[in-house]
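Worked example

This section walks through a single chain of length 347. The input is the sequence exactly as stored; nothing has been trimmed or padded.
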Amino acid sequence: PPPPPPPQGQREDEVSSSTPTRPLGPRQLFIARHGERVDFTFGLWIPYSFDKDRKYQRKDLNMPPSVPDRRDGPEGFTRDCPLTVIGTVQAKMVGEAMKEAGVTIHHVFCSPSLRCVQTCHHILTGMGVADKLKINIEPGLFEWLAWYQDEMPSWMSSEELTSAGYNIEPGYKPYISSEELQDTQETCQQFFIRNFFITQCTLQATEEAGGNVLLIGHAATLDTCSRQLVGKEPRPVNELMSIVRKVPYCSVAMLEEVMEDDETSLMQMGGRSSPTLSRGGRHSPTLSRLGGRSSPGGISSMSLMSRSTIRTPAPPPKVWRIVQPPFPPMTHTSVSTFDWKMLLDKE
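Given that input, the structure is written out below as tokens.
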């Protein structure tokens, strides 16, 4: 029989979290790092990029043509910088490669950092779905708090991001709010557990609707959001740092849910002990204290921030494995700024 017509007001080709037909095949999880950032490229860029009236002036062709308005003014970009033009191109290229490879995304969760939101927007633009898929801003996906001893970033609000042209989901309730992210004494293990908690929440919340999930975060996110999902313990800090240094801008990790038939054959082949296979975090500790938003699996967000560790009954387990993405990686290099004066004779 022909497929049912799309719901009223929804185009037939529209990708939506509320699509009534559950997508077939194993679910996929894509985890991406943001693109090239202005501060790492240009250093102390804010003092010479804004005039005395605090109006932005582009001083290099790789600087963004414009920057969004924010309540805390230019100073807000100090710990929450935008992408370079190359950064937006990188993200769009990744989105185009995903589309060309036949990848579909149904649910999107993003770190509140401006560079991540912009990366997310341009990946979805490259896929041709930026106007159809709303971005869920999830502070719990932010990078390691220990890197922000002096001061945490002041992120742009959903309203500000929407005004800047990004397709933000206004009604999304984060699993960990920005107010809860204040413990700059967070250990490496707590960082892993926080990011894994968010991964579990996003997968469980989208389980019924089905479909693939895209997480946009930072260099460490590719490991911190996948490590425990495949049943491994959090890495010690030196191992994590070694991985972080090898995750270029816009790198993408991919995980795939193992279907029951595959799981049976893997068990028969002894695959359960495979380093890339595990029941979604059965071995991982979750932290206990009451309060905060509850995940679909019954874990509360505030429970995560406690320092006492207990085992929490896990939801029905799923088996996930890290797999090769169906599109190539992207390599790039850094260059120095051209100074035309070097062509002049020295007097």
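What to look for: The longest strand covers residues 28-33.
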